[in-house]
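User: Show me a protein chain along with its predicted structure.
Assistant: Here is one chain, sequence first, then structure tokens.
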Amino acid sequence: MSSTIPFIKYSATGNDFILVDNRRRILTGDETAFLRGMCARKTGIGADGILLIENPRRADCTFKMRYFNRDGRESEMCGNGARASAYHAHTHEIAASEMYFEVSGDCYHARVESDRVRLRMQPPHDLRLQPGALKTLEYPEGLHLEECGFVNTGVPHYILFVNDVSKAPVTALGRTLRHHPAFAPAGTNVNFVEMVSPSRLKLRTYERGVEEETLACGTGAVASAWLAHLTHDARFPINLTTPGGELCVEQEPATGRLTLAGNVRKTFTGEYLRCD
């Protein structure tokens, strides 16, 4: 017996997502192999991950977002996925242009202005400026790498500064560091950052769960901007150039909270065949 699952495909600064309105519980989230199949580039829809929009548990939130990486496993948070979810909620009359929604039990605030979405992040935590992972590895001579630190901005991130991000071995070194014992047992995302000026960074990210470089990473942008601010005197607002486009990280004067902003675009809609 087969059925179809309606979906919308979104791109948030190059991060692409399959979004399913799951308020009627089409999916439980336990369908790991099925979700992985949806994300497959050549045999499925193809995406970095899946967003499920569900009814909130919190009374102060309009909806709940659940995020699943390309490997079909649920993750704690996705910054660009949250921005895409907010865009969807506003354009489909689930929420106003300014909204509060739930992710992993936390309440997030977002504002949609045309195709640009600004998301207020939860405070960074688990900061470690010297994890010591880099000194245990061998990497090409002539490649300048500086360990900047580790921080959790919803998911874990390790940040390395490089002199030329275009030449960074993102896939090879990212895959090794992602499983490094310093970040066990959960592993980490790995960010390669070039500081262009005190207010501009270039960023490439190897994403945990996707297991390759992605065109952008929202939580990685926030982590990189925060560590650059702490260790290299970067000044907010900090603009980040990623392979997928531009992101901006700011710090709210009144609260000290970090915000993530960038564009969101709906690319297509469709139905995915599910065979039970």
